[in-house]
Amino acid sequence: MRVNSVFSYVPKAYSSKEYQSLNKFYSKVYRDQKTKITDPISEEFASEKYDVANCTFDEFTSTIKSLAKEGKLSTHDTLLTTANFERSLKQINPNFKYYITSADSVGRRNWVEEFDALAKRELSRGNMLGYQRHVERKAVAAKVLELS
């Protein structure tokens, strides 16, 4: 079949063995993304390590990664919240300001409020994908806040 190109399109046919291995892989990925937080953390440990209401982005990402290693957060949550958009955009324009809420001199801010503000900004711009991404990031930050 030719579709407006020089190259013909031929769908890949998987053998039953390949299909089974792909199915196992994707079902495991799906289960990992849907894991729930069920194990409580000791109050002393949580108050020292998991303060997303007053931390820098690097502290926030290290907290998320440590919770993922402990099995408290899924891989999806980790990848979603550890993307540093401001650092990427500052390479293009050094004067660019990505975050909305104010931070102290070190760069600490409340990440639940920040993700909420970013979601509202994306919604006002009509960017539904950005809105959904920030709503999910806010939910992950709220989960971490519940653990403390």
In words, what does this structure look like?
This protein has 148 residues and is mainly alpha-helical. It has one domain. 59% of the residues lie in helices and 0% in strands. The protein has seven helices and no strands. Helix 6 runs antiparallel to helix 7. The chain is globular and about 55 Å long.
What is the first-to-last residue Cα distance? 58 Å
Which regions have little confidence, pLDDT < 50, spanning 5+ residues?
34-47
How many individual β-strands? 0
Radius of gyration, Cα only, in angstroms?
Answer: 20 Å
- Major sheet details: none
Order of helices and strands: HHHHHHH
Secondary structure: helix percent: 55-70%
Shape field: globular
In short:
The chain is mainly α and 148 residues long. Helix content is 59%, strand content 0%.
Please write out the topology.
Elements: H1 16-33, H2 43-49, H3 57-69, H4 75-81, H5 85-92, H6 111-125, H7 128-147
Helix pairs in contact: 3-4, 6-7
Entry keywords:
globular, 148 residues, mainly alpha
